[in-house]
Structures
1.
Amino acid sequence: MHRDGMLAARAVAQSATDPLSGLKVGDVPRPAARPGWSVVRVVASSINMHDVWTLRGVGHPAERLPIILGCDAAGLDEDGNEVIVYPVIADPDAGGGDETLDPDRALLSERHDGAFAQYLTVPTRNLIPKPEWLTFEQAACLPVAWTTAYRMLFTQARITAGDRVLVQGAGGGVASAAISLAAAAGAVVYATSRSEDKREKALSWGARETFPSGAKLPEKVDVVIETVGEATWSHSLRSLRPGGTLVVAGATSGTNPPADLARVFYLQQRILGSTGCTRPELIAMLRMMDATGVRPVIDRVLPLDEIDKGFQLMLDGELTGKIIVCPPAPRP
Ligand SMILES: NC(=O)c1ccc[n+]([C@@H]2O[C@H](COP(=O)([O-])OP(=O)(O)OC[C@H]3O[C@@H](n4cnc5c(N)ncnc54)[C@H](OP(=O)(O)O)[C@@H]3O)[C@@H](O)[C@H]2O)c1
């Protein structure tokens, strides 16, 4: 490797049917320092469905290739401080005080090179001190999946202790976070999964009861956390009490479910969209994790040069929680 080079995993092409054909791990130039931005040595990152969408050509124009993938990072800043990278590059003022509403916002790896690399550069505002009670691997789970779950539950649905919450697709990164966070907040959590093994694990994260996808629940719920989309949407609406709230942040299985409008208006159900989180929400979530002892669910840790194995597990729906990717430490 060249002295100014680094190892990185990039999207170099897109394919709807064979997304891994556009994934390339190799040597690229290191990012340079620039005013107002910090260079972070990445210690751990994690894979999100967002990386798969980029490789499939969903929501990411081909003109922006090649680009280093990866939205989540925990590492060391130039002074050796342990940091978590807040992943939304945006102007809070342009979003009325909420950077997720800035029409020009970009998640790491959308317009700026991402975290599957030995180094990345982000606006210094995006660095958040990593608490010592979190490992780098745990910290790398938080910026996208965990904060999305936090915002869905507490900012959008405004859950309170005793609320009944259904989480669809228990094994997912966002879903496993939602189960853990809702249970820690005193909610009665029901979860569905296609896999018996994942249903078993969801109980250990705090779910009251788990069910195969689509099964009837013992009672209607106050809130549904939906990231699966088409495959679970009708069940989500059927499971929701009159006046209840469904928060949707993803649609892994498809974006065109039956609308079921009559049910929605007759039962006065609220359907709320949610995307990402603000920097203050990430900090608030860290305080909650400190107070409750809740920690991320990690499926496995892979070296960066084996990242394709992690992508394959995600494509096959075989993961439980988060897959961590660690670049090699730079040579002294
Ligand atoms: N809006 C945002 O800011 C935001 C942030 C993060 C993620 N997302 C979106 O949220 C979704 C989940 O992301 P993730 O990173 O958590 O992905 P993930 O870890 O791969 O989880 C996806 C989960 O969906 C479930 N699933 C998939 N296909 C299914 C089907 N046909 N029937 C039933 N369940 C199915 C699976 O659960 P089981 O195997 O347990 O059944 C799987 O574990 C993605 O679409 C992603 O783009 C959005």
Note: The chain has a mean pLDDT of 96.
2.
Amino acid sequence: MAFELRWGIISTGRIAMEFVKDLLVDPASRDVTDVAHKVVAVGSRSTESAQKFIDAYINGDNNVKAYGSYAEVFADKNVDAVYIGTPHTLHYENAVEALNAGKHVLCEKATTSNAAETKSLIKLAKEKKLFFMEALWTRFHPLTLELKKIAEEGTLGDPVVLHADLSADFHIEDKPLNHRMLDPKLGGGALLDLGPYPMFWAMLALYEHPSNKNARPTSVTGSILKSTITDVDASTSWTVNFTEHLKAQAILSCSMIAQTAHFGAVIRYKKGNIKVATPIFRPPSFTVEYFDGPGGNVVREETRSFSYVGGGWHFEADEVARCIKAGKIESDLWTHEKTIIIMETFDEVRRQGKYVLPEGVEKVDRVQ
Ligand SMILES: NC(=O)c1ccc[n+]([C@@H]2O[C@H](COP(=O)([O-])OP(=O)(O)OC[C@H]3O[C@@H](n4cnc5c(N)ncnc54)[C@H](OP(=O)(O)O)[C@@H]3O)[C@@H](O)[C@H]2O)c1
């Protein structure tokens, strides 16, 4: 019998819709038999919106509760795990409430407004013995698992330089000032929204590489170009060095006023390259180029393509269910430490780029 995880969803925006649609995909379609998913409650700031969401995306299922508040989802005894799909700066308080109500949590990226909030959430989850994970869905894709095997089996040698970009033209000039990409109170801008993905590839290819021996980044430099509309970042670039055991550098960027760079992500090793196709949050393929020796010519090239039923968010849901079934409070693949490193990097990039969130947005002080 599959272990069935009962989900409560908070918020009814775009990503909550994508996630829920994937929860309804038959796990057998991706050869999963050990876990299954059931949506039991949807919470929104209005009951009408929750009901509309259930009607549109959960086939109007009468067994799914429509709540006009998030608190009612946290209080629902039938909910095992809460999925948080609100804007970034609300994640902290939403997750605290969910954990205090005894629920496991899968929380959208960017996990919180700053690293101090993330650390405080992780501490709470540990105290409560509850599962907590940043919803970094790309980590669980079949493509990522396969790429990691090839990257780490030795032929390519150590990674040296990684380039990754995720951008999208949000047409912010047409958006209201309280849109989550523009409003500083909602952590608007490119970095917190798009930045997790270039950073993810740096974490996967450099931080996770066995030669790095789990060493944290040794330095971060950042540059922010502010929007002309509100005081959030329109385009941001940053570098992350890993020099304790590797001699490797990640060169990362994101923009909300330009289309994404065509190269997606390129990982350059001593003896070859891996080119990850766009979009880097859900790449359809990757190509490995093998050199005839260190710094040599490309002598062999292999492309791997991947497809599956659904949008790709169900793989992270399966991970959550498996971890909870096993009594774990943390995923081995996307650990608390990786989320903390990402948030610390973003704190540093915002500090260097002088992107200060408005007073009161950060609920836990940065210095803690
Ligand atoms: N993993 C991914 O692929 C992915 C993709 C896109 C976004 N995200 C992340 O998911 C989060 C939400 O993004 P989204 O694109 O789904 O945003 P969205 O469409 O604007 O939805 C956000 C939802 O949050 C709720 N909300 C609560 N307070 C709000 C406020 N003050 N202003 C606006 N909405 C508020 C609303 O739901 P109710 O009215 O029902 O309460 C709203 O529909 C962000 O943190 C983002 O980084 C992840």
Note: Residues 3-138+313-332 form a domain with the Rossmann fold fold (CATH 3.40.50.720).
